[in-house]
Design goal:
By secondary structure, the protein is an alpha+beta fold. Helices cover 34% and strands 20% of the residues. It has 2 domains: 86 residues, Rossmann fold, CATH 3.40.50; 42 residues, no CATH class. Helix 4 crosses helix 5. The longest helix has 14 residues. It binds adenosine-5'-triphosphate (ATP) and magnesium ion.
């Protein structure tokens, strides 16, 4: 029997894939400060299928951080809508959106946003506890995860004591 060409397999995976993990429709974001308006997103449309690895590139000031803040629900939008796995996140209350983010999203921030007085273990543990993970499981995960990336010997150090 002839072997199925590789690209045909890819096509069949795509055809049976669930709805996109992220859809942004006509998203508009305006910053207002001191009487001045900056339109950072002008009706942005974006569709990201499940499993896709996406890099957003552009010059400084082109709106990359704004885009990520708006599609994650960290920031409000002025028009349009954002669907994360089918859920329109800007229609949620602030509290619901925060809970959804804690459970469903992961972030690595440009400026780290770690808590400087907490150890590595405590920094990993805190968001897990906020997301409702059982204390015992959170403690195990908070020790295992840094160990997997080579920080097992520094679990009790604090962020300012580590390299980037
Ligand atoms: N809080 C804010 N208040 C007013 N204007 C802002 C604010 N944040 C961003 N902007 C403006 O919005 C536009 C997009 O900025 P943004 O930070 O999203 O760009 P960026 O692509 O992430 O840039 P960089 O590559 O430097 O990180 C810029 O014109 C910026 O000056
Ligand atoms: Mg940025």
């Amino acid at each position: 029997m002839a072997r199925t060409p590789f690209w045909l397999k890819l096509v069949s995976v795509t055809a049976s894939a669930p709805e996109p993990i992220l859809v942004a429709e006509s998203v508009r974001k305006v910053y207002r400060s001191g009487g001045e308006e900056v339109v950072a997103l002008h009706g942005l449309d974006l569709t990201v299928p499940h499993g896709e690895l996406l890099a957003v590139m552009g010059p400084s000031g082109s709106g990359k951080t704004t885009l990520l803040n708006c599609v994650s629900g960290l920031d409000e939008i002025d028009a349009g809508r954002v669907l994360v796995d089918g859920l329109s996140i800007h229609e949620l209350s602030d509290k619901e959106r925060t809970n959804h983010r804690a459970r469903e999203m992961g972030f690595i921030f440009q400026a780290f946003n770690l808590i400087p007085v907490f150890t590595i273990t405590e920094n990993v543990e805190l968001p897990l506890l906020l997301a409702g993970v059982h204390e015992r499981d959170a403690r195990v995960c908070a020790r295992e995860t840094p160990t997997r990336v080579g920080l097992g010997h520094r679990l009790d150090r604090r962020p300012p004591e580590l390299s980037g």
